[in-house]
Amino acid sequence: MAEALARFRHIRPAEVAHCRSAADVASAIARARTEGLAVAVRGGGHCFGGTSSTDGLLIDLAGLDGIRLEGDLAVVGGGATLGRIYDELETHGRTLNAGCGTTVGIGGLVLGGGLGILGRVYGTLSDRLRAAEVVLASGEIARADEELLWALRGAGQARFAVVTELAFATVEPPPSTAFELLWAPEALPAVLHAWQRWAPEAPDAMAASLVVTAGERLQVKVFGAMAGSEAETSRTLVTLCDAAGAPPRAAVHHPGSFREVKRFLSGPAEEGRQDEPMWCKSEYVRDPLPDKAAEALVAHLQQRPDNIEAELDFSPWAGAYTRTPVAATAFAHRDARFLLKHAVTVPAGTDPAPAREWLAASYAITHPHGTGGTYPNFPDTDLDPWDASYHLGNRDRLVGLKRRYDPEGLLGPTP
Question: Does residue 249 belong to any structural domain of this protein?
Answer without folding.
Answer: yes
